[in-house]
Amino acid sequence: MPLTVDQLAGYVERDLDADLARWFRDEPQVDIPASIRPVGPFLAKLPRDAATALAGFDRRVRSGTMPAGFLDIYDWSYGFHFAANGCQILDSDYETELSDDDVWSLGADGGGNYYVMLTNGRVAVWFHEEEVIEAETQFDNLDVFLWSVIRCQAVRAGALDLAAVEADFRALGQPGVLAGGTGLLASLS
Fold first, then answer.
1. DSSP state, 139?
2. String of DSSP letters for 82-138
3. Which of 84, 140, 64, 139 is nearest to 109 (CA)?
4. Which of 59, 65, 123, 129 is deepest in the core (most CB within 10 A)?
5. Alpha-carbon gap, residue 103 to 189, rounded angstroms
6. Tens digits of pLDDT across the chain (189 residues)
7. Helix 16-24 with 142-156: angle, nearest 10 deg
8. CB burial of residue 182 (10 Å; 0-12, 13-18, 19+)
9. Measured between alpha carbons, how far is 10 from 150 in angstroms, rounded to an integer?
């Protein structure tokens, strides 16, 4: 039976820790300073399920016990202040300007781009060269994003066979996974 987005609801609280321990237990731990801006004001703007997922993720990031091998989470990438660093945030229409109040930076992709959560609960890539949130990089929510990124990195590390998860990636239908050239599957080929 194909995996669905609904089945991944609650992933951060239910399965994230086990997946990180399974594939990334020997990785260095995330270590960000207490001075990183608080997530609370952004949580208040999110739908309930999205706020629950981000609060759980933030708690793990700030705990100092979360493995760092699946996503570039550093003091320069988590809770990033775009405006303070002279960066513009354009929505996917390339016209609508967003602010730091409209996105929360979750980490980086290793190529200078940031994964951001939007106030509607979706996750997307902010491309640093164009300073835009690209539509074809989006995920329905943080649970689906983390499930996908963790498996992608496990495949890349040789800890998981792509054939074991490719059907689930396709069944979930996430542009951030399936988009040619920019999706996670494209990054594995």
1. B
2. TGGGT--EE-TTSS-EE-TTTEEEEEE-SSS-EEEEETTS-EEEEETTTTEE-GGG-
3. 139
4. 123
5. 30
6. 789 999 999 999 999 999 999 999 999 999 999 999 999 999 999 999 999 999 999 999 999 989 987 899 999 999 999 999 999 999 999 999 999 999 999 999 888 899 999 999 999 999 999 999 998 999 999 999 999 999 999 999 999 999 999 999 999 999 999 998 888 988 887
7. 10
8. middle
9. 15
- Token code pair at residue 75: 């003091």
Distance CA 147, CA 134 (A): 20
Q: Which two tokens stand for residue 40?
A: 């609370």
Torsion sign over Cα 89, 91, 94, 97: negative
Distance CA 40, CA 178 (A): 32
